[in-house]
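Consider this one:
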Amino acid sequence: MSKYAQELRNTAKAMMAEGKGILAMDESNGTCNKRFKNLDIEPVEENRRAYRELLITAPDLGNYISGAILYDETIRQSTKDGVSFVKAMQDAGIIPGIKVDTGAKDLAARPNEKVTEGLDGLRDRIAEYYEMGARFAKWRSVITIGDGIPSDGCIEANAHGLARYAVLCQEGGLVPIVEPEVLINGDHTIETCYEVTEKTLHEVFRQLYVQNAAYDQMILKPSMVISGADCSQQASVEEVASETVRCLMNCVPASVPGIAFLSGGQSEQRASAHLNEMNAKYRSQFPWRVTFSYARAIQQPALNYWKGEQSNVEEAQKRLVERAKLNSEASKGNYSQSMEKEPALV
């Protein structure tokens, strides 16, 4: 058992606090720059720093966000007033987290499939991040649905990587967010998504067991069971909720403290509606907390408004907090479309 076991349990419990979720803001520099370019924001480090400062210093964000996942560049940065981002987050009651994988790379002998890398040197990186104030980590694996894929080899390789990462985190004092993402890309049906998601989650928890991971000291960050983005038959909000819950109930041990969904390319409002439906209808059956760990589905309204302009920061922060608040309501089953100020984007 890790010497950090009780601390890890406490951190996981705090991350899954009632009415709160996790803000994913760990986009790589390349991904962040791409989003900036789409809005004619200059893709330079100072703009990335300024944008991340906008996010973590948004007033009252800690009322709805328990933790935020940072990128390596971000955890080393400070506000324009010289306060480290880690300290600013701690002062706001937001637990600092860190992305520790080095990205999804082509899986050898498996065309069109990926495996996430980053295990080499991970123990030392975890030790450094813990010293810097991080208390949880994230590792994302991607599973693609397509012609003849995913293969068993792909699912097993990614699940093994997630499990190895998880036990290294627990050994080093970081709560691992285990993120097996079944991509929304494709024309597959919700039935196919269910089959692949169930198979993936079973293998992930098998590998976690084999590697001696402590289920009560981790968070699961899965994708929802949903129709492929290009599928002609899009499942309803009710169907996504019922199939996702059925899958989780069949796969996720009751001792896991919480499940924090990724948004995976859903619109902001659809991501909130799906989460809300699960909690409104099935919450009494859950052995775990079911909440959100969204990136674009929380950040996008703020980024769209900010556009790199200091004069837009205050209003952009209000939009960020509003989106976080709506997802907080969804995590309690209290969200409704009528709460939206913008027209529906579903």
